[in-house]
DNA sequence: ACCTGAACACCGTTCAAGT
DNA sequence: ACCTGAACACCGTTCAAGT
């Protein structure tokens, strides 16, 4: 016996959690994300979703929060030196993007409101201030780290050929042919970049604290 | 007298160039990009565009090529040390993203085919190889630079509030209140990041060439 | 409170028909 | 060759109607 038409079921078909789960499934499946496709997957009418969430953008922000929590896995609690915390945070973000690459293009450029994600940035900010970075520079450093993480997140989401030379090239074509492709290349580039970043932040901090603040221009 | 209905005008209404120009105008205007909106702006039916370009994606790739050429402004010809070339290239890309921030989310994650853009990456690759970076590392460095540039490009395109804490924060809220907003913050973060990147690449290169390749682990 | 179904104002793309 | 207009299969969102 099928349940026939039912205006309001006794037990709700949907919930915020169920919607978030299905949305992540949909995104991870590689199919284009959309309210209609999501409703289809939930066996429900698109308009039903609007009883629980704030439309398309609301669902996307929901996913950001959801998979941030998932990827962190308690890494938040790490003590240790500031550069270890930064590296851990970056790697956690990397894991999250790697686990759900197709989400990256969706969340890109949207204002972050999820409390958990905010808290994680807040933790980072506190760490950097405590480490001795000047207050008016910390947000810049965070933006830098963010740009770095997002850039590499997109690298993961990209079709495997980032460059597709059609004519002759002097060097690029050869390097592409020789290089490992896809995730491996991206991973190596990420590790390299993270090393460079941390290292240069340490150098900058040392320079800031060692001499008694030379004021040159 | 209006020109009434005309199946095929004597002089074509459209051309690839005219479409590219109008597309950039549309994107820069801040309105959402779309084939229909573009056709409207050109005073033409959406289907007409398909006589000249390869649909939505084709038009986007067209814009990438167009505004890359525009932003370069002959900076390609710069001689000088490799790190100057890298810095110049990055800054040119930065200018391009700054001039057309709304294009960034559109081109993100799409395979690059435009010959001019390919040539510019090729030039960068050749420069790095000539500078002494190991061949199997150059593509990683380029991916790193790219991630960096894209990340900051998106930073420019973002709504001015990247973070919107709703509750109490330990540090982040205060920093956001004190910090310069929008483009200025992004510019300073970019400059900071570029400095760090170049510096650490130089350090890496020095380390690579100075000692006779110590093999650890 | 929570779902459906109809309706609205859109998309991007294809294609026959017109000149 | 190059445009139109109709058609197709979609979007995201709103809202009255049902229980």
From TrEMBL, chains A, B:
<dbReference type="InterPro" id="IPR009057">
    <property type="entry name" value="Homeodomain-like_sf"/>
</dbReference>
<dbReference type="InterPro" id="IPR036271">
    <property type="entry name" value="Tet_transcr_reg_TetR-rel_C_sf"/>
</dbReference>
<dbReference type="InterPro" id="IPR004111">
    <property type="entry name" value="Repressor_TetR_C"/>
</dbReference>
<keyword id="KW-0804">Transcription</keyword>
<dbReference type="Pfam" id="PF02909">
    <property type="entry name" value="TetR_C_1"/>
</dbReference>
<keyword id="KW-0805">Transcription regulation</keyword>
<feature type="domain" description="Tetracycline repressor TetR C-terminal">
    <location>
        <begin position="80"/>
        <end position="204"/>
    </location>
</feature>
<dbReference type="GO" id="GO:0045892">
    <property type="term" value="P:negative regulation of DNA-templated transcription"/>
</dbReference>
<protein>
    <recommendedName>
        <fullName>Tetracycline repressor TetR C-terminal domain-containing protein</fullName>
    </recommendedName>
</protein>
């Amino acid at each position: 016996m099928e349940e026939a038409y039912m205006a309001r079921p006794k037990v709700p078909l949907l919930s915020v959690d169920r919607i978030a789960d299905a949305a992540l499934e949909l995104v991870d499946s590689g199919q284009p994300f959309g309210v209609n496709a999501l409703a289809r997957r939930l066996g429900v009418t698109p308009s039903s979703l609007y009883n629980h969430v704030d439309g398309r953008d609301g669902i996307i922000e929901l996913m950001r929060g959801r998979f941030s929590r998932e990827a962190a896995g308690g890494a938040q609690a790490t003590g240790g030196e500031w550069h270890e915390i930064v590296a851990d945070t970056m790697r956690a973000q990397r894991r999250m993007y790697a686990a759900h690459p197709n989400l990256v293009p969706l969340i890109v450029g949207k204002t972050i409101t999820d409390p958990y994600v905010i808290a994680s940035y807040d933790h980072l900010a506190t760490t950097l201030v405590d480490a001795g970075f000047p207050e008016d520079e910390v947000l810049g450093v965070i933006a830098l780290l963010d740009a770095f993480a997002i850039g590499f997140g997109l690298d993961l989401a990209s079709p495997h050929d980032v460059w597709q030379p059609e004519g002759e090239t002097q060097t690029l074509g050869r390097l592409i042919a020789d290089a490992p492709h896809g995730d491996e290349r991206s991973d190596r580039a990420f590790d390299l970049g993270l090393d460079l970043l941390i290292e240069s932040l340490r150098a900058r901090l040392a320079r800031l604290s060692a001499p008694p603040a030379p004021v040159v221009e």
